[in-house]
Each structure stands twice: as C-alpha cells, then as structure tokens.
Amino acid sequence: MLHVLLFFYFLVSSSHAAVQDFCVADLKAPQGPAGYSCKTPAKVTVDDFVYSGLGVAGNTSNFIKASINTAFADKFPGLNGLGLSMARVDLAPGGAIPMHSHPGASETLLVAKGSVIAAFVSSDNTVYSKTLKEGDIMVFPQGLLHFEVNTGRTPALIWVSFSSSNPGLQILSYALFRSSLPSELIEKTTFLDDDEVKRLKALLGGSG
Q1: Residue 157 and residue 180 share a domain
Q2: C-alpha 203: how far from chain center
Q3: Residue 71: how many CB atoms within 10 A of its CB?
Q4: How far apart are CA 105 and CA 68, in angstroms?
Q5: Does the keyword Signal apply (predicted)?
Q6: Closest to 101 (Cα-Cα) out of 169, 167, 173
Q7: Which of 6, 41, 45, 51 is deepest in the core (most CB within 10 A)?
Q8: pLDDT tens across 61-111, in order?
Q9: 87 and 119 inside one domain
C-alpha cells in the first residue's frame, strides 16, 4: 500500500513542477545561436500560435519566375523552440528555385498543384532527382544542395516543412554572384570565364 501512495505522490508532485510548454519568441529581444528569448507568458496570446501569411499566392513576375513565402520564427513567434516551420513556394511555368541549402534543417515538400522536378545532391555528388506530381512528397536531408523546377504548363504550388523554426538559407548563385567575392577568385574556383562572371554579378547585384 505504501508503494502505491508513494507512486501517486510522485505523480501529483511532478504535475505541479515548473513546466515550460512553449517559448514564444520575443521578437523585440536580440536573437542568439539558440534562437529568440521567450516572451513573458503573461504577454502570450493565441495570435502568437496562428499565422495567416501563406494563404495568398506569391508574385512570380521575376527573373526566376518563383516566389517563396516563409513561416519561420521571425514571422510566426509561436514556432520558436518547437523544431519546425513551413513555407509556401509558387512557381510559374518554367520557374525555378535555384540550387540552395538549409544548414539548420531537413526539408519535406508536398506538391499541391502542378508538376515539378525536384532534386538534391549528396556529399558524394550523387544526384537524386524525380519529377513530382500533385500529392507527391520528397525529403531533402539537412544541409544538402537541392532545387525545384516547374516543368509543367501551369503554375505549381508547393508546401514545405522544415525540422527547425529557423532552418537558414544559402542560395549558391547568390553566394557567388551577389556577394563581394572578387571575380578572379570566382573564376578560379568555378572555372567560369570573366564575361560570364561579370554577367551574373550584374544580374544578381554582386560586386568585386
């Protein structure tokens, strides 16, 4: 009988222990390597756990014919510390999300409309590529380069989820041609000629 009483005492005591159910991001505080500081619980509202920013199609009238709208912790504070986030990708016919990586998360994508080619490249340079149709899902392991291209004749809609509230993003072409990295170093490390490097820097806004 005593051990039963002790068991129930342990349950009751544990239930009253200090439990932090969530850490809603305090967007007014500095962000550190571990994420945002927690908002004072008394200031948390239901709106911190609701985000309506993915309901409208993005503007694809740009040179990549694509739009990415993210729901990361900086926009959706209730995600902070939960290890997940989402994004909406709109692709016009012929549109592409350039080769990029997410250093802080793996990614799962779901094709909701249209048809896209999706692919990632492993660290041994093996390419995993597939044409995806509506309802298909593909996963990209954390940190690996990947891309999507709309190969159909109609707009494509992709829903994306990440295993982090702040997955990070590095677009390869932006890192090379939208930065101040000297052109001569880009030419030596990519084997592109000077004219092509200058063209891409002019297109993407790089210098050097």
Answers
A1: no
A2: 24
A3: 21
A4: 17
A5: yes
A6: 169
A7: 51
A8: 999 999 999 999 999 999 999 999 999 999 999 999 999 999 999 999 999
A9: yes
What one-character-per-residue DSSP string does 151-169 give? -SSS-EEEEEEESSSS---
Any alpha helices (H) in the chain, and if so which ranges? 2-15, 172-177, 183-190, 194-204
The token duo for 156 is 């494509």
SS3 of the chain: helix, strand, coil, percent, to 5: 25, 30, 45
Residue 187 belongs to what domain range?
Answer: 170-208
User: Is 71 within 8 Å of 25 (Cβ atoms)?
Assistant: no
DSSP string across 63-78: TT-EEEEEE-TTT-GG
Query: Does residue 160 lie within any of the structural domains?
Result: yes
The pLDDT tens digits for 28-38 are 988 877 779 99
Q: Within 13 Å, how many C-alpha atoms sit on residue 121's CB side?
A: 9
pTM: 0.84
- Rounded Cα distance, 78 and 39, in Å: 10
Same domain, 85 and 95: yes
Q: Is 14 a domain residue?
A: no
Q: Please, are residues 25 and 36 in contact by the beta-carbon 8 Å criterion?
A: yes
Regarding whether 180 and 78 lie in a shared domain, the answer is no
* Residue of higher predicted confidence among 15 and 160: 160
Regarding whether 141 and 200 lie in a shared domain, the answer is: no
User: Rg of the chain's alpha carbons, rounded to an integer?
Assistant: 22
Q: Total domain count for the chain?
A: 2
